[in-house]
Amino acid sequence: MPDKSVFDAFTAFQGKPHVTAAMIGISCRHWTACEAGQTAEHALEKMRDYRFDVLPVQEPDGQVSGYFRTRKMGDFGQLPTWCGIDEQLDCLDYKTGIFPLLKQLADSRNKDRAPFYFLTAPGSQGPPEIVGMVSDINLNSRAVFQYGYAALTELEMELSELIGAAFPEEKRLRQALDYLAQRGIAQQSIESSLQSFTNDSSDEHQNTLREYLTLRGMLALVEHTGLYSWLGYSATNAAEFGRKRTEILSVRNWIAHPVHSYEKRPRKPGAGNLAGDTKPDLLATRLYTAFSAVDTMVRSLKELRKKVDLRTDRPRVGQYFTSRFFSVSQARDAFREGTFMLEPGVAAPEELPSAARSIAYVTPQNPEPKAGSWQTVDSTENQDSFSLLLNELSTSTHGELSWQLAASEARADEQFPAIRIQQWEHLMYREEGCWLLNSSPEEACAWGRRFKQDAIVYAEAGQMAQLLSCGKASVSQ
Question: Which domain of life is it from (predicted)?
Fold first, then answer.
């Protein structure tokens, strides 16, 4: 068997291009400036002609001694204000990367002034010298499009890997996509992807189905299967992921059609509609929000790929997702036809046990598997953990929380025959657990964390069953 590094090459990806403030901004050799000694009236005339909110003031030797700025962004009806240069507030190094630049431009200090920075480079003999400037409007550039396109492509590739782990069988993936489309969720995007896949299949040109999914379709699938909770967002805050998804898609559409004016920039919903709302809707804010979310998701996805099964390269999240969860009368009962069952990514029955509004599967067994610590179903550790769970549920004072016995079975599919062998060899194909009835996702995840579990399965009647990470969110709520 070749070294693992050989197989790492199949998921290798060229990273995002290095984009700096200087690549986006304009150098002092090419900018339009005001000569030292000119009045505010002269400056206003030039600023009005070029629609500049900021106009540098240059000395005869080329040094920048200050600048004029409009009293309000886009307002050329009043004389501009002359300002001296504050090296701490007005200047950035010309090598500043795109991400910290976006953060600086989007900073709240810019809410009452034109968002810009002078760019500085080390002087030949003295302090740093101003060599150019960059402003929010300069973000409408090909360098930013290139960075954004690469960042979004990386996200798409990582999401595709996650979906491949969760849906190794294309039949189940198709069922999940049909479910979303039938409910009007990313319907146009999903139906277009399915049609393209069908057309290519008839010509025997098809790739895997997941390769036909758009970013919109993949994010919808991740959101409604609970997989979003593995991307740095709390399992109990799907709304936060939904907001980030909207920001990402807005920026994605802007980047995909780069020939447009600054006025066509992605905007915050409802921006500019409130009377007296003077806070600028900056392009930097929209880009920083979207790219921050992309970065969070990509880092989480890459981390997930490190958490693989001990004997295969399949991410553990994929093994959890393809398990099945059954009702049983008592522990160690055989799985039977017709019994109540949940599968992540599949719609739950309209009628849940005991007419519950929601149902969650929690197990205390096999916590945090590590090399050399495989536990069989009948191990003392697992028996003790299961007894402890039953005892805590029986004595719980959580009000209306009720529960029933359940068990899970890991599914081994044709694409991963090694998993089937491993399951039988280590007797890891079954885990004992319980249904929590009428619990919230937050409550179910708390039970999972208490027993050191990575995930719980959660569903509401008639809705898609979700695999929710029990871990705490890494995104500030």
Answer: Bacteria
